[in-house]
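We modelled the chain as a single entity of 152 amino acids. Its sequence is:
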Amino acid sequence: MSRVSATAQARSAKTAQSDGRRQSVRAVAIGASLLSTLGKFGGDATLSELAAAAHLPLSKAHRYLRALIGSAFVEQDAATGNYRLGSEALALGLAALAGIDLVALATPLIAALSALVNETIVLSIWANHCRYSPRPPASSLPRTFPRRRSRP
């Protein structure tokens, strides 16, 4: 084999490998788009609705939905044939939700609202069947004003 043909074969193999990676990345993007589209429906959706909303041909949407069903990210209702998010999508959403620090996120908003309405604002979070109330910053503690006594 000549040196030129060996170099050309190596280049061709590298190009094929790169194309395969691009196709894999594209497949993930299409699957994620279908999951996002299904989530926006807020419940069940037909194949036609999903394909149209995701701008995919019916056959391609169906292939991807079958793969997502196989990995439990999507479920299909046996009676209607409609699709909905599956148990793995729920687990992923709950994991994302667990990573959000609600107190840190809400604190500047609560401070701004408190300053706007000149009232004390309390944040209560239900967690593990009990209420958690984070301690407000000292600057937002309630201010007490003496009551005026009414004259008889």
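As a brief sanity check on the tokenised model: Residues 101-140 form one domain. Residues 88 and 103 are 27 Å apart (CA to CA).
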